[in-house]
């Protein structure tokens, strides 16, 4: 008799706000692709999260399409995984409302990302910005995900998701799987090329990040300009945040650990490390950029991917939502 063992479920999402960076890739997308082999994976483009910062509608549309194309180009395989647009499955917004009512204001106002973003967008501190982690909890909990592959910057949101899940389970009887983060050991926090004490972010100056769709010339130029130090030694150590960041990136696009990469470059100059890194990035990103361009030309195919994803995701999401509604006492 054939036995089928159910694979553990994985959920993650990425916002379609601006150009995705190698930080997104190393911290999250690379694991998304890898995890498809062993897990039942569900991935979303989090367009509802993107509007917590004011978006130009035409740009949001273009960025959402581009993110879909890019995820396929990075290796998300729709034969293996569910890939969909968050706003296409209404259950996300509805569960977020229900979970809002068991989440405390104090918990939300303590979130580092809320504090940072409120600082950055002082004229638009909207309720969505505060509520953002509850929508994220809804995303994850709807799919009963066991693992959530993300970068380190999302660990506080994940902790809150776990608290919300446990609180609901205690109040209404076990309903949600309590998820765990899946954060890479090195590369969970890729740093800015211009200020290696700050996270690499797509909302920074373009020289501070490598975009996944940057041209080869841009990649080479930005790596050459990356801030290092004056120690003149290549070591993987906290004293050398710039060099360590370059080693992290180098290792993430190869097979070695950052420590092994440091050993390879022992006694060599910073220029040599930068040249080797730029070469490795060009080699890795060129095929992704080319495939992304091809997918973007085929809008009908992207629409079909989104439609299929929406159907498959809805089946799971609405089942969970029905359970939650029933348990909370809705007729
Ligand atoms: P977002 O769109 O900002 O980033 C997508 C993923 O990339 C990771 N990341 C990084 N990892 C390492 N170094 C960096 N410099 C770096 N910058 C970004 C992020 O940790 C993330 O994993 N709230 C999420 C999107 C989201 C989500 C979810 C994630 C919405 N719903 C449910 C998981 C589960 C976000 O804004 O990611």
Task: For the structure shown, list the relevant keywords.
three-stranded parallel beta sheet; binds tryptophanyl-5'AMP; 2 domains; Rossmann fold; Tyrosyl-Transfer RNA Synthetase; 331 residues; mainly alpha; globular
Helix content: 40-55%
CATH topology of the largest domain: Rossmann fold
* Helix and strand sequence: EHEHHEHHHHEHEHHHHH
Q: Superfamily at the CATH H level of the largest domain?
A: HUPs
CATH architecture title of the largest domain: 3-Layer(aba) Sandwich
Structural class: mainly alpha
Specify the biggest β-sheet.
3 strands, parallel
Amino- and carboxy-terminal Cα gap: 43 Å
Shape: globular
DSSP, total strands: 5
> What's the helix count?
13
Q: Which strand order do you get reading across the main beta sheet?
A: 1-2-3
CATH class annotation of the largest domain: Alpha Beta
* Ligand catalogue: tryptophanyl-5'AMP
Low-confidence stretches: none
Overall mean pLDDT: 96
Tally of separate domains: 2
Our estimate of the beta-strand percent is 5-15%
Radius of gyration, Cα only, in angstroms? 21 Å
